[in-house]
Design brief:
Layout lengths: L3 H38 L7 H48 L10 H51 L14 H11 L4 E3 L2 E3 L1 H27 L4 E4 L19 E3 L24 E3 L2 H6 L3 H9 L8 H8 L1
Antiparallel strand pairs: 1-2, 3-4, 3-5
Helix pairs in contact: 1-2, 1-5, 2-3, 2-5, 3-4, 3-5
């Protein structure tokens, strides 16, 4: 039967990830609303350099607040998510008889956490810098267009050009910027536009799951356990979703095991992936008469699991 303790630990880990996601999402949503409010109260049609600088100063203050909050959040989220992965691995390794306790003070863990925290922080700071550029471009473009419109109006009044020519002055770039600003898509990352709260949640879910996965892998390495198994659960068929190729399979961390493929990819396999890794041993698979079947399944990425519930029960 499946181990109730591991199931409960996995459920708690998921709840904790969602709590961390909500925390950073709310931080970004509050600043997002503040930025929208500031723009709404300021008349950008008045071209005065001091006014522009004041707007940008206020925006920079909001983003500085976000930078500080992002650093604080990443420090806690990186450490705690990693520890969740270590804890899950520890429970499984204890059941498998590999080790009774895990030394979290080992260098492999400290170094990994430092890198994870840096990665989380950089993701969020880059997003904040992107917002700064988007706001600056929007304000500058608005003022530039205003000046052009004023000059055109003077030319029309003087009879220099026909009124119809005004239609030709529509600013496509400004129109696109205004549309994104109205949709609160203040972040541009890798050619895609995001709302700050949505992007923060995306970073949180992805990075915290990466942290938990790395915690599990490093704990396995620490105690010489080479095999790990990807969790199995029902999937909704979606284009580009590679999860079914990994679900339930056993992989070799080192790639040295001839019966199981190398762990070349690891959860999360996509931004909202819920798969986790757990340690497994060859001895445990053999004792349950599952070794050959799981090995065959693991080496065949296109094979389907006949009975998901029965399979989960057999390998737990």
């Amino acid at each position: 039967m499946p181990d109730d303790g591991l199931i409960l630990a996995g459920a708690r880990a998921k709840i904790y990830v969602e709590a961390l996601t909500t925390q950073i999402e709310q931080l970004y949503r509050s600043r997002q609303r503040s930025l929208v409010t500031r723009l709404a109260k300021i008349d950008l049609t008045a071209f005065e350099r001091w006014r522009t600088e004041e707007v940008l100063k206020q925006i920079n203050a909001e983003l500085a607040f976000l930078n500080k909050g992002a650093r604080t959040w990443a420090k806690e989220a990186g450490l705690e998510s990693y520890k969740r992965g270590v804890s899950l691995a520890e429970k499984r390794l204890r059941i498998l008889g590999v080790t009774d306790t895990v030394d979290f003070g080992a260098t492999i863990h400290k170094t990994a956490v430092d890198v994870l925290v840096d990665d989380m922080t950089i993701d969020l700071l880059n997003a904040n810098q992107s917002m700064r550029r988007v706001f600056r471009n929007f304000i500058r473009r608005t003022q530039q267009t205003l000046l052009e419109e004023r000059e055109i109006s003077k030319m029309i009044a003087a009879g220099v050009i026909e009124g119809a020519t005004r239609k030709q002055t529509s600013d496509v770039i400004l129109a696109a910027l205004r549309k994104r600003m109205a949709g609160e898509q203040f972040i541009l990352i890798n050619g895609r536009h995001y709302r700050p709260d949505h992007y923060a949640a995306l970073v949180a879910r992805t990075r915290t799951r990466e942290a938990a996965t790395l915690g599990t892998i490093n704990t396995c390495l620490q105690y010489g356990n080479d095999l790990v198994q990807v969790s199995a659960h029902a999937h909704v068929n979606r284009p580009g979703d590679v999860c079914p190729e990994y679900a339930g399979r056993v992989f070799s961390i080192s790639g040295a095991n001839p019966d199981f493929p190398h762990l070349s990819a690891r959860p999360p396999f996509h931004p909202h992936c819920c798969h986790v890794l757990t340690p497994i041993t060859a001895q445990a698979l053999k004792s349950r008469g599952m070794y050959d079947d799981v090995s065959k399944l693991s080496r065949n990425r296109t094979a389907e699991i006949d009975s998901l519930e029965a399979y989960q029960e057999a390998i737990a």
